[in-house]
Amino acid sequence: MGHRRRGDKEADPVILCLCNMKGGVGKTTLAVNLAGLLASRGSKVLLLDADPNGSLVKWRALSEARAPDVVHYPEKTLHRDMPKLARGYEHVIVDTPPAHGPIVLSSLVTSHAALIPMEPSPLSYWPQRVMWVLLKTARKHNPGLKAFRVLARKIPGSKLGPEQWETQDGSALGHLLETSIHNRADFVRAMGEGIGVFDLAPGSRSAEEISRLLDEIDPDRYENMSLLEKTRTESSAIQQAPRESRKSPRKEQLMTADFVVQGRAHRGFIRNISKAGAFIETSEAFAGGEQITLTFEPRPGSPPLRISGTICRVEPAGIGVQFSKDPES
Question: pTM for this one?
Fold first, then answer.
């Protein structure tokens, strides 16, 4: 997998999203080393740091190396801005933050494939319902999105492997890869020096695992998918969809709202509202069709208004809610 060109025309880049709603599972480590291996094979690679913490930027600052390129862009508009960011690259590796639904969803909408690292622990796969919702929502705008799971941070010598993990009902998140990534000291040392394991120990087991993982994913299988052009179209559709089905005029607002979905309390911001519904900006992930109870103050100091409805639309920025009755009644 080296340079990819289709005739004399520059090919669209292949975009791989590293994602998991749980932190500490190895997303950043895998992103660094997959990008480094691709660069060593001759590809022009962009490491896109979508995490507000900027771990990749901090990693890059530790070394004088300048390949692969690193860009910090923790925005929920990646699905709209990716064509500009990715121009001139052959591969883009996106490192997403944990527990930030809008950024992860936006990244998935513009990616060819998602790689979901998971630890061999119940603490890793218990939170994955949210990840499943994000994948399901992203595929409404990006039906060709592939998803893979990789067992990461496995303890060397442990007998816990894919066979035991597959029983945890994670198959809905994507195909479980045969390659496992072990929790080896080489990964920690390389990250601390601002390099990858292929720079630190090219013949090590760590480097061998990353090489097998990349070959198993085989990102160049997606090279004929012109996703960036599709993303431009889908981005426009995402922005225009609310206006197409809106029957009541909406008033722009910025109000704090408390809401309950499936018995769990959340907080967000109402961005606009009408008699028929509202749009709530939230960093959490939900599924279309879920019932919601919303409480907010229509005006500062006024009695709280409580109304029920249904989540009718899910976007990177939040959720659209259709009220079951007129909120002013």
Answer: 0.70
